[in-house]
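Hmm, what's this shape?
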Amino acid sequence: MPEGKIVKALSGFYYVLENDKLIQCRGRGVFRKNKVTPLVGDEVVFQAENDLEGYILEVKERKNELVRPPIANVDQAILVFSAVEPDFSTVLLDRFLVLVEFNHIEPLICITKMDLTNKDQKQKIAEYADQYKAASYEVILTSSETEDGIEQLNPHVENKISVFAGQSGVGKSSLLNVLRPDLELKTNDISSHLGRGKHTTRHVELIKIGNGLIADTPGFSSLEFTNIEAEDLTGCFPEIQRASENCKFRGCLHVTEPKCGVKAALESGEIPSYRYEHYVDFLQEIKDRKPRY
């Protein structure tokens, strides 16, 4: 039986790529019965009715999956955040980073619209970039207008399945258009009334860029820590994870416990206060979550 990768899912059809040939497939009823939903990024076994149509028979084991956006087998998440319009949000970025870290996906922070910043804004973004780099993240500052930083982004895309993620209006589609101009993806300006972008991407699709595949995903701004437990959260903040090795008590959650290595690192300035505050807020959110039965 032939095998391929789902590169697009739309209106109940799954578009499977096999040796540069795209086959439009439907899922067999057995998936619904077993509560398996094929996702973009899935490696699948399919049966071809002809050169253009077929049925998916089996979804291979996934190395990871995301719920929002719905995609599987991702190597890296390129988290696209604008410096301005909308303003750079550390709390939203940290939410994305926690979800990406929890799913064992390599994150890359890409800050766009640097051409729109004034001197003070540019300096503030540079400070944030240095702090995230110190936490062990890769950070690239870009502009789709001037194409600054694009040459730094290109090598990260090669031979990987990447997901572009971030709230709407930050310039994900504009960035993809620079990486591959023939795409001519639709972009929308920021709604001045709402202060956020209008959704321009309606479905998840893997787009070939060089030797890599990038998923342009619908923008979204609400992210819930549905499957993350309190004890998992430390591992989703690399600098907190490192500092936790100096905690006296095993299982320390770094809030009220004595002789906590994380709070010592916070006091010495090794951990930025906003990162620790977000950790505490997220921890409380997880603790307040209604139990699932």
Q: What stands out?
A: The helical segments are 29-33, 90-102, 119-134, 150-157, 172-179, 238-243, 261-267, 273-288. The first strand starts at residue 3 and ends at 10. Residues 189-201 have pLDDT under 50 and may be disordered.
